[in-house]
Amino acid sequence: MARYSKKAQEQVEKTMHREKKGTLRSGSGAKVKSRKQAIAIALSEAREKGYKVPEKKESSKKATPRKAAAKKAATKKTTTKKAAPKKAAAKKGTRKKATAKKTTA
Question: In which residue ranges is the amino acid composition biased (Basic residues) (predicted)?
Answer without folding.
Answer: 63-105
